[in-house]
Design brief:
The protein is of the alpha/beta class. The protein contains 15 helices and 13 strands.
Length: 338
């Protein structure tokens, strides 16, 4: 981990200077009358700073240092799927976002009427700075892991709020997203509702003791890579923990708690009481089809007991937010409770 992340101040690159200059020129002849801030974006509640209204500013503490953001951002660009989930969950419709890949569109689980007019500004880890500039954003939200090398360029366009990384710390990230969007009060309600939802499902499973005795495996076949058996320190792992569900012993071998990489000949290591599985990419190219038709798969306890469930990769692994999490809770309840 870098030790100078929060203190270093690099000189803006030539690209950022050009972008910032162009934005300043375009701003002279434009206004925000056409901004689509989405449902709920006009609320000023939840501010924890001294400025109110769209003309004020607030200070947000980030991994890159303190960032001055608008009192109530109206034109937001988000640079990952987690940030998009956060914005939509909080009633903010961004003006621009990246897609997960070149071929895909917006995440299917999100309400399509809330994402239909959001402009695509590239793919995760490869945003198009010129397109972002053209949208005249007043706030950009992303992460160090995805876009650290573009941070100075982005700050030349608009105040930019970065978290460290997506995935495991998604709840902390959501709170920072909410602070940047001036939606802290709304975020508190979202969190409380999620916690209540999870508690209800735990009770439906028979209570904490029964849930803890149910070992759940999460298996993701990866096109172009080994299969992942997910550990505890990741998005889906935290959701299982919120339900109090048990995990197979193999997850303790996960590097940094994230995942155990297994070859096709080791897929039976994923055995448990319940298996949820999916593929990133083609089911044929990821090895999913071969594994599900092989002898190791048929030998697994969960398979023999008909406790194996296919899930959508977008929802379970790309959403990384509270809207996705609540839908995942529903799917787990349907699978395990009925």
């Amino acid at each position: 981990m870098r030790t100078t992340r929060t203190t270093r101040r690099r000189t803006l690159t030539a690209t950022a200077v050009v972008l910032a200059s162009a934005l300043a020129l375009s701003a002279c002849g434009s206004d925000d009358s056409g901004a689509d801030s989405g449902p709920g974006a006009d609320s000023g509640s939840g501010s924890t700073d001294d400025a109110g209204g769209s003309d004020g500013t607030r200070t947000v503490q980030t991994v890159m240092g303190d960032v001055e953001v608008p009192g109530n951002p109206q034109r937001v660009v988000v640079l990952d799927t987690a940030e998009l989930d956060s914005a939509i969950t909080l009633g903010v419709r961004p003006v621009g976002t990246v897609h997960a890949d070149v071929e895909g569109g917006f995440l299917d689980y999100l309400p399509q009427d809330q994402v239909a007019d959001i402009e695509n500004v590239g793919t995760i880890g490869n945003p198009n700075l010129e397109q972002i500039l053209a949208l005249e954003p007043d706030l950009i939200i992303g992460s160090v892991v995805r876009d650290e090398e573009r941070y100075d360029d982005l700050t030349g366009i608009a105040p930019t709020v970065f978290t460290e990384q997506p995935g495991g710390p998604w709840k902390e990230n959501f709170l920072l997203h909410a602070e940047a969007l001036n939606k802290v009060t709304e975020a508190e309600s979202v969190i409380a509702e999620y916690q209540e939802h999870a508690a209800e499902i735990t009770e439906a499973l028979g209570g904490p003791d029964t849930a803890a005795q149910t070992e759940v495996s999460i298996l993701r076949f990866i096109e172009g890579g080994d299969t992942r058996l997910y550990g505890r320190q990741n998005y889906i792992g935290t959701i299982l923990e919120d339900l109090g569900l048990g995990r197979p012993a193999i997850v303790e071998d996960a590097e940094d708690g994230f995942a155990v990489e297994v070859s096709p000949e080791q897929v039976d290591l994923a055995d448990g009481d319940v298996i949820f599985y999916t593929s990133y990419g083609s089911a044929e190219k990821s090895g999913e089809e071969k594994a599900l038709n092989g002898p190791l798969w048929e030998s697994m306890t969960a398979v023999q007991n008909d406790q194996v469930f296919h899930v959508e990769d977008q929802l379970w692994f790309l959403g990384i937010g509270y809207t996705a999490a609540n839908l995942i809770l529903d799917e787990i309840e349907t699978a395990l409770v009925g």
